[in-house]
């Protein structure tokens, strides 16, 4: 236990320490300032005027057009894989799987209905998954930047330029970070080559086929972009993706880093670092609650098999230990990353339930790249609205009024996720498609199905891998779940940003609810928890709670 | 640009989008990974980048120190002169082209028993997998393989209990769900009712599954990692406890002093990173390779 808490303390300290310089840098790099000459060349090649600002509609349509073209490009790459170089002998994907995979990586979900080593070649990993790891993360940042500008600007329709935000996030933030972390991970043992399969004679005289791949260049993207898909089926449990306890710690840091640093970026952009510390406190409390619950469930709570074994060892790697797997799991679901270094299906019943709950919070602890911040700001606005009603004043946040029109968008945003999850699970269960895909009987099977759709709708990609999503039904329903779960909230978000930007700031009076201090932190934390519980408690009680408390 | 101006706005938008996707593909999808591949060729990075290959006693590549290997004979029996790794769900076991876990949950306790003459038709629960592995390791290492919730014949000790009113009321019928007839049930009577063995193919869905802990010690002799599969199925490492359990057998098979084997084990053990990250572990591939190098056994490579 001591080791578990030391490990968590170190990782949290590193993330909090790094979030200050990275957050400050992102604020400088992403908002305002001059275009570099190289960037101007990129804008010219894309056919973009970087100095033209967009209103919320144009910003949204640009974002959606880029995402649509991304899906198209990935779909083409995956279906034509067999005819392209570096396919390492893999043919094209069937169209439903290709469509699912294209949407999955474009929406930053990266749920994989296939095993990497038997499906994707080096080119698909580099030019397919790799590109969208950068781009989908950047799209999340774009939406967040637009919302921040909506909060900061006054009396305008302009929310920035999507293409500039996209290119700047990619080349100024994500690429430098990828290069540094890629070299670091390779130095610590991660594979990076373009070799094909090699069959060797093993120590005992058997045969083993070893695979290579551009894993070192993929791994940092997978983790810091909120992507989370594996080159190999076993994801970060695979020794080539995550060879030591040290790389494991680094991978956890990377998952938490950008979403946490973006809170700082937000504080810089609105001119109130106090606000970013306040939000960091909310995120910290939520994360600590999740980690505490998961650690307790994994180490103390005993299922039948756990007691027979003497611990939750099934589906964990020796080198990480159970604490290293639990912390990784909570970080992968609390951020919207979804990578795995253990079999979440074999976690203790309540431990698996905590991972599910972390996604059900709406990916805000600390959530996805960009999406973590805007999800959190939605929770803040709900808290401000409720708090404003409590003190009997018009709810305001950062001197912007949250009236009926604004709250309509906030509430619509908040309803999309839970509604989509529950409708999808209901559809899959009512048609029998959930049952036939379950890898475990009883409540655990239902937990797998709920976990699957929670993960898909919330752009996470984490899986209880016993669930077989590789059927026509699930491929197509998951495509719908991912598209709705990713883009519909963005529509409401940008509409909200547009309205907020047009407002003139109100006057701060003694009656205005202060967006800081213990009361505010408690209010926002409670709002996030209560919303998630109200939406999902019945589902949770039928699956992990039913299994764990039986 | 002239062409773009003449297109409808929404089409122009998509053309811009497509150009951006293609440009990002060139920069982030080709230039970045290829540059990193080139950087990975420098000494110091190259060994890891190539997959941490290890060299066998004959000087040829014998695998990777990161990827676990199987140390069994063609019939799947453990080779006694080697340290044994953890159970594996990667393909048929340590198939490096098919990583993966078993993905069964902590309440996976009831087997689907194989039908007569069709041994592949059944499916073991996670509990029975654990019990069977514990029994087998116990037999191999000459220690007691007993575990809580396991029968002496190495399956999950789970009763299917029928009650008068479904889930409540007097017990009317009891079946030992994982013990196929004609096995003798692990307990004779439950709440005054005689326990029967299970008939493969029969539907016991209406019975309440009741795992029975039994009187096995809370800390079994066979360590936890010896009876559980890893997440990747390629875990090259075992716990120091499981290595210690195997030392006497390997020493005996190779005619070595146990102290010499222990010294090699210590050499192949990695502690916690920075003193507190992860868990101590023994690399089985490197250990067995070191054994073959220093104390070869006739008939092995």
From TrEMBL, chain A:
Cellular component aspect of the GO annotation: plasma membrane
GO MF entries: P-type potassium transmembrane transporter activity; potassium ion binding
Main location: membrane
Location relative to the cell: Cell membrane
Transmembrane segments: 6-27, 59-80, 133-152, 173-191, 245-265, 277-297, 369-390, 410-430, 476-497, 518-540
Protein's UniProt keywords contain Electron transport: no
Keywords associated with the record: Cell membrane, Ion transport, Membrane, Potassium, Potassium transport, Transmembrane, Transmembrane helix, Transport
Membrane-protein topology: Multi-pass membrane protein
PANTHER family in the cross-refs: POTASSIUM-TRANSPORTING ATPASE A CHAIN, POTASSIUM-TRANSPORTING ATPASE POTASSIUM-BINDING SUBUNIT
Membership in a protein family: Belongs to the KdpA family.
Subunit structure: The system is composed of three essential subunits: KdpA, KdpB and KdpC.
UniProt function note: Part of the high-affinity ATP-driven potassium transport (or Kdp) system, which catalyzes the hydrolysis of ATP coupled with the electrogenic transport of potassium into the cytoplasm. This subunit binds the extracellular potassium ions and delivers the ions to the membrane domain of KdpB through an intramembrane tunnel.
Name of the molecule in the record: Potassium-transporting ATPase potassium-binding subunit
Biological source species: Actinacidiphila rubida
TrEMBL record, chain B:
Coiled coil: none
Leader sequence residues: none
GO cellular component: plasma membrane
Keywords on record: ATP-binding, Cell membrane, Ion transport, Membrane, Nucleotide-binding, Potassium, Potassium transport, Transmembrane, Transmembrane helix, Transport
Matching InterPro entries: KdpC (IPR003820)
Assembly behavior: The system is composed of three essential subunits: KdpA, KdpB and KdpC.
The protein's name in its UniProt record: Potassium-transporting ATPase KdpC subunit
Organism: Actinacidiphila rubida
